[in-house]
Design brief:
By secondary structure, this protein is an all-alpha fold. Helix content is 60%, strand content 2%. A hairpin with a 2-residue loop joins strand 1 and strand 2 (164-165). It is globular.
Length: 257
């Protein structure tokens, strides 16, 4: 509403706000007049179906069993939490799609048939890691399997250990990490400068404090409240995401945090 890009930047998920703005502007430009929230619900629903399709493909490539792949996909497709966030303007389903894309690229580029030179693959994997992190800050965990794949499978080496040929992939890992780090440094640096919620606060505080309930964009329950009670809430939360326990159908329930 303000017309300023910085107002759309949430440090935990930088991409969703600008992406939503571009979609809304596109539909307005072609003459389709719908409330922005409806457009975002339609966008997330589209991401949901694409995500399920990609999830099924990856399951089949991993198991080589059509029945297992179909049942696994059906489990996700029948879960309450997946569709809850598929029909709401939330970041999680688009983020899930980006994570699956990261695994698909990892699977393809670490395979024996890949013809892309290893420096290009390392840069590409670094880009996917940065994209996942910018999509949601916890997506940075994707860098762990990406780095593992780069370490063992991107750059064959003639080096031998006790007579057995080994693969040394430290250079691909460094290139992957450097690519992801550079992209994220630029993206987060520019976002920190443009975001109105960052004014008067340090960079680390800007990134982490939104997880605290005291801040304007924070949540009702602090991320950092780690105790036995929190473990119980996490357990019941996952149960509600899968099976839609009655308390999770009420958005005003404290279970939503």
């Amino acid at each position: 509403h303000t017309g300023k890009l910085g107002s759309l930047l949430h440090p935990h998920h930088l991409l969703y706000g600008p992406m939503s703005y571009i979609v809304a502007r596109f539909f307005a430009g072609v003459g389709i007049q719908l409330p922005n929230i409806v457009l975002l619900q339609l966008l997330n629903t589209l991401f949901a179906f694409i995500t399920l399709a990609l999830f099924h493909i990856l399951c089949f490539r991993f198991t080589r069993d059509r029945t297992v792949a179909a049942l696994t996909t059906a489990l996700l497709a029948s879960s309450f939490g997946f569709w809850l966030f598929s029909v709401e303007p939330e970041v999680y389903v688009p983020h899930a799609f980006i994570l699956l894309m990261g695994f698909a690229v990892l699977w393809t580029w670490t395979g024996p048939k890949s013809r892309v030179p290893w420096p290009g693959r390392a840069v590409g994997l670094g880009f996917m890691g940065a994209l996942a992190t910018a999509s949601h800050i916890m997506g940075g965990l994707l860098l762990i399997p990406l780095a593992w794949g780069a370490l063992w499978y991107l750059r064959p080496s003639e080096a031998k250990s006790r007579g057995v040929r080994v693969r040394t992939g430290f250079l691909p890992v460094l290139l992957l990490g450097g690519t992801a780090g550079l992209i994220l440094a630029v993206v987060y640096g520019l976002s920190f400068s443009a975001g109105p919620n960052s004014q008067g606060r340090g960079f680390i505080q800007w990134v982490l404090d939104l997880a605290n309930p005291e801040t304007g964009l924070g949540y009702r329950v602090s991320y950092w409240n780690l105790n036995a009670g929190a473990l119980k809430e996490w357990t019941t939360g996952w149960g509600g995401a899968l099976f839609a326990a009655p308390k999770y159908r009420d958005v005003d329930s404290p279970a939503f945090g």
